[in-house]
Structure formats: C-alpha cells, structure tokens
Amino acid sequence: MATKKSTKTTTRRRTRTNTRKLVIVESPSKAKTIGRFLGRTYKVVASLGHIRDLPKSRMGVEIDNNYKPEYISIRGKGDVIKGLRRDAKNAKAIYLASDPDREGEAIAWHVSNILKLDPKGKNRVTFNEITKDAVKDAFKEPRSINMDLVDAQQARRVLDRLVGYSISPILWKKVKTGLSAGRVQSVALNLIIKREQAIRDFKPVEYWSIDAEFAKGKEHFQASFFGQHGKKMDLHNNDDVQKVLAQIDKKSPFTISKVTRRERRRMPQPPFTTSTLQQEANRRLNYRTRKTMMAAQQLYEGINIGQGAAVGLITYMRTDSTRIASVAKHEASKFIHEKYGAEYAAAKPVKGKMQEGAQDAHEAIRPTSVYRTPAEMKQYLTNDQYRLYSLIWSRFVASEMTAQVVDTMSLTISQNDVDFRATGSKVKFPGFTKVYHRSNKDTDNLLPDLADGDQVKMVKDDPAQHFTQPPARYTEAALVKTLEENGVGRPSTYAPTLDTIQRRYYVRLVARHFEPTELGEIVNKIIEKQFPEIVDVKFTADVEHNLDQIEEGKRQWVQVVDQFFKPFEKEVDAAEKQVEKIQMRDKLAGINCDICGAPMVVKMGRYGKFYACSRFPNCRNTKAIVKDTGVTCPKCGKGTVVERKSKKNRTFYGCSRYPDCDFVSWDQPIARKCPKCGHFLVVKKLKGGQQIVCPNGDYKENEQK
C-alpha cells in the first residue's frame, strides 16, 4: 500500500512539474523577486548573464563569410545550460525575461538558440520595473524576439572584436603583452591624453581683483571692482590696481548709483538617465561608475522589504530617456500634494532635453513607487544602496515640483567714476529645493536694504593677484558627460570602458581625476597615428548612429560592419609594417636585490609600477614601491608606516615590517597621540580638506583646507 501511495505522489509531482511555465532571467536575485510575483505555476531560473559568446582564444569572426560570428558556450556555463535544457524539457511554456535592452535581447536570443525555440514564437517578455503589476502585465502580452535589437548588439560585438583583436596583437608585438585597444576605450583614453597635453601647454595669464568691504551703519557687505565709467574693466597687473586705488578717496562716501531687483525662477532638473546618474553619484556621493551601476542593479532587481516580499525599488537603470510614465506622474503629484502642499506640485513638470541620437527605449530612472520613501526603505538597504536610492528618489520627486523663486538684488557702488558691484539673493519660495538641493545657491545671501542715491562707506579694500588656471583633468563624471555629449558609447558601455582603461594601467585616478600613464601615452600615440578614425570622436559617434539604425530596422548589420572593416583592414596591414618596436626601458631603482645583490629596476605591471631584479628571469625577486611616511609603526614600534596600494588601486597604510607586523589603516597615521585616550591620531580626508581625528574616540581637531 505504501508503494502505491508513493507512486501516486510521484506521478502527481511530475504532472505538476510538467504544467509549470518556465521563465528565464539573467540573475538569481531577479529570479527570486519575479518568482514571488508569479506564484507556483511558474518556475523562474537564471542564466547568470550570457551563456554564449565569441571565443577568447581567436578572432571568432568569419570575415570572408559575411562576418559570421562563431558563438560558443562560455566556459563554466555547462551546468547552467544543462539545467536550462532539463527545465525547458519539462515546461508547459517558456518565457525569456532578460533585461529590456539590446544586451538583454541578445541574451534571450542566445538562450532561445540553445533551447531550440521557435524564433518567431511569442516567448519574449520585458518590463521596465520589477513590481508585481508591471511583471504580471508583461506576461499578458509576450512578443517574439526583436531581431533588429539582436542584430544591433551583434554588430557592436563583432565590431569591437574586429578592432580589439586586430590592434591588440600589434601592441603586444611592438610594446608589451597584455595590452588592448577598443573603439570606445581608445576614444576615452585619447580624450584624457589631449586634456593632459592642454594642461602641459597651458601658459598662465596674470590678472588681479579688488574685493572690498562696505558698510551702511552697522550693516556690512562685500563687493568687487567692476570697472570705470559704467564699463567693465580688466585688471592685468598691479599697476592697473594702483591706478584704480589712487582714484578712490577712502575718507569720502561711495554712492549707490544703481539698484536692480529681480525675481528669478530656478527650474528643477529632469529625472536621471544612466549617464546623469553616474555623474551625480560621482559628484555627490564620490561613487565610482562601476559602484553606481552595481548598486542600481541591486535596487532594480529587487530588495526584500519585509514579510519576505522582494520588490524592485527603481525602474530599469540603463536608459538615455527623461520620459516618465503617466501613472508615475500621477502618483508623484498625489504624494507632493499630501506631503508638501498643492503649491509645490508642478502643473507642467520639467521635460528634459534628450541627447541627439538617444534611443528613448525606456523611461527615466525613477522609484517604482514614490511612497517608498528613503526613510522607510533605509532599514532594508545597505548604506551604498540607501544613498543611491535617496538620490534617485529625491531627483524624481523634485522633477515633478515647482520652480524655486529667488529675489535677487544687485548694487552698483560708485565714486570718482570707479564702480564696484555686489549681488545678493533671498529664497522667496523653495519649490523643488524642499527635496533636492542643486548647489549652495539654494541658501540666502542677503544685502542691506539700499536704494539709489544712498551712501555707504568703504571699510577696507583687498587687492589680490590671480593667474588663469589650466583646464581641469577629467573626473569620472566629467568624462562620462563628454562621451555622452559627443555620442560616443551608450549607457551600458561607460562603466566597463572606464574600468578597462584603469585595469590596463593606461590611466590612473589621482585625487579623483584621471592622469594618463607613460604606457597609456605610448599606446595612444600608436593608435592615433596608425588608426586615426578609431580615436576620432565624430567617427565613433557615426558608428553608434549606424548601430541605432540597425536597431530601428533601417540598415543591415553586415553592411555596417563591412563599411567599417574594409578601410580598417588596410590600416592594420600598414601598421604591421610601419610601427617600430618600442623598448620599454627599465629605470634603475637605486637599490639592490635582497636575494642576489643585483641592481633593482622599476617595471610596469598590471597594478602600476614595482621593483624587480634586473637579473630576471634568473632572479624573480620583486618588491612593491612604497612611500615611507616617516611615522613609527604604532603597533610594533620597530618599523615605519608606509603608503601602499590595494589591488583596486586604493591607498592604504601599513607597517614596513609586513608580514612580521600586520598593522594596516585606511587613514594616514601621524606621529602624535590622542590627548584623551593615547591612541594614535590619523589624517581623515574630507571633501575639500582634511581633519586630524582619533579613530578610537570622538577627538577631532579643526578642519584644514
């Protein structure tokens, strides 16, 4: 009897399994979230990203056969593919629910090929946000795979492979192994190096300013020299300054010759696109581009917000559109009315200007529900997730609010035909700044209540010499902005591009700004000379435009690739013959090898420069290049504290006697102890300055700029 009962149970389980519908997504966290929404009649599994790609060991593109790509299963994905095939065999229906962009469409197509699904079958499901309603609505209207999207991604992959696997071997032969080149990364590197060259060529120009303090009774205010006879005048040197000061009678009053009062409206910015999110997170949160996208991906795929309910907190984070769904607009308007009042809700919310060539495939990045406030979500989020979610939430809410109204006042202060100007402002109505501050302009800068003809006294003057400054080096935010403005790359390419040029040690981040390395300049020089179109911003933007046309069904992908490759192939052949081998000469380090006594030299590695024995490979001794701070190790008291670099190129401090002493600190220790507890003090880096603090307590010294 027990056997019969067991057989019936097994049959029942098989029947139930065969009636389940299979949903395939990219990541386990996304699968977990969607699975809760769909219920037991669906089985949701993850492909763990791409399951097929071009081979790493060779070109993998049949150039003489219409650039046919040779796709193979990615190493390590064998068990995943077996699992997908097993689940597909037992499924009643199969749905491909990868991300709603070119990359996601390509993943769905590759999975479809592996499972031998009907390419015209309606098994593709997409949604812009991972919420219960959005997911269920998407499954009501499945579609077939969009081959135009697949072809656009395939064309990008083939083009990148043709460029990378054609130029990289030349760099290996002529410079050193392990180097690489690419369409977008070569443009990014070239932009950084051109900016560095502009800094080197820059010649500072002297100029002067005269700031002054004026008083009306007990009220004091600041003004700056404007010009003479009502016309603006530049002060080129100290002689110009002295001539102006000689005209002024400090004992006599100045007259308010002109007062201008205006009401100015400052509009909110539109909600985030991928690039503006990366830029703002870099500026405000000091997040690297990769960190921003990683946290955004987690917020999109789903967060457990209690009672086992995981839900996507933001919409899809790879977009170039500022468009917002009408349902989200209505919800935001309702929230603003309830929380802040009707006067804060915009009748016509700001509409952002999209970049030329923007695909506008998905709406802007926004919270899936504005009622999930950052304060309520904080308990469920990591610190990185919370800070990014707060930024996205506040930017979206602000975009649906009214303008900030500011009363401005400008004064012209004159005496003996010498004019000074002062400006002040007062926030009349905060508008969107109630939620999202754009800058320090959101605060008041008051001037005394003065009128034409009033007289004021100059309390002191402060002439100052200045020099024009060279253009600033690119930050990650500035580089992303420049790439986007020039139409180079797309939202999904910025993070991996910046990561690649740093991993290859073509550039390094110094104080949050990119500086090219010697290796980067050598590689750029070769590419710029032999492959000028690869680093040409306009040419690369045209390629992106062609990829967009493939996506829109206006061009064939093979034709676009062929149009690019035919002239490029000739440049490759010429470079093979013309580029001379570059000797990367090692510089003497000034120290001898601990093992064999031979001189040590400075070599270039994956993570930067290091010391190596000049007798390599006979002697393989290497040493990290460290900067000695001169501070005695606070742990062992024998070694000194040295500056080191982590594998992620982050600076930290450790004992010179490592591994005998394992002292480490992210902040630089100094040769003083805390007056309260006796613990060593450290220098804490802050925005715009630094501060000496005790890591063991609440002792702090005044901030230093």
Domain tally: 5
DSSP E strands, number: 29
- Major sheet summary line: 6 strands, antiparallel, barrel
CATH topology of the largest domain: Topoisomerase I, domain 2
Q: Please name the fourth-level CATH homologous superfamily of the largest domain.
A: Topoisomerase I, domain 2
Structure characterization notes:
Helix 4 packs across helix 6. This protein has 18 helices and 29 strands. Helix content is 35%, strand content 24%. With 705 residues, it is α+β, with helices and mostly antiparallel strands. The chain folds into five domains: 130 residues, 3-Layer(aba) Sandwich (Rossmann fold); 157 residues, Topoisomerase I, domain 2 (Orthogonal Bundle); 126 residues, Distorted Sandwich (Topoisomerase I, domain 3); 126 residues, Topoisomerase I, domain 4, CATH 1.10.290.10; 107 residues, no CATH class. Strand 19 and strand 20 form a beta hairpin. The chain has a six-stranded antiparallel beta barrel with strand order 8-9-15-14-11-16. The protein has a four-stranded antiparallel β-sheet with strand order 19-20-21-22, with no helix packed on it. Strands 23-24-25-26 form a four-stranded antiparallel β-sheet, with no helix packed on it.
Brief rundown of the structure:
With 705 residues, the chain is α+β, with helices and mostly antiparallel strands. The protein has 18 helices and 29 strands.
Features:
Topoisomerase I, domain 3, 705 residues, 4-stranded antiparallel β-sheet, alpha+beta, Rossmann fold
Topology:
Elements: H1 2-18, E1 21-25, H2 28-38, E2 42-46, E3 52-53, E4 61-62, E5 68-69, E6 72-73, H3 78-89, E7 93-96, H4 102-114, H5 132-140, H6 147-174, H7 183-201, E8 206-216, E9 219-228, E10 231-232, H8 238-247, E11 254-266, H9 274-285, H10 289-301, E12 303-304, E13 310-311, H11 326-339, H12 374-377, H13 383-399, E14 404-415, E15 418-429, E16 455-467, H14 476-485, H15 494-503, E17 507-510, E18 513-516, H16 518-530, H17 537-551, H18 557-578, E19 587-592, E20 599-605, E21 608-613, E22 622-624, E23 627-632, E24 640-645, E25 651-655, E26 664-665, E27 668-673, E28 680-686, E29 689-693
Parallel strand pairs: 1-2, 1-7
Antiparallel strand pairs: 3-6, 4-5, 8-9, 8-16, 9-10, 9-15, 11-14, 11-16, 12-13, 14-15, 17-18, 19-20, 20-21, 21-22, 23-24, 24-25, 25-26, 27-28, 28-29
Helix pairs in contact: 4-6, 6-17, 6-18, 7-15, 7-16, 9-14, 10-13
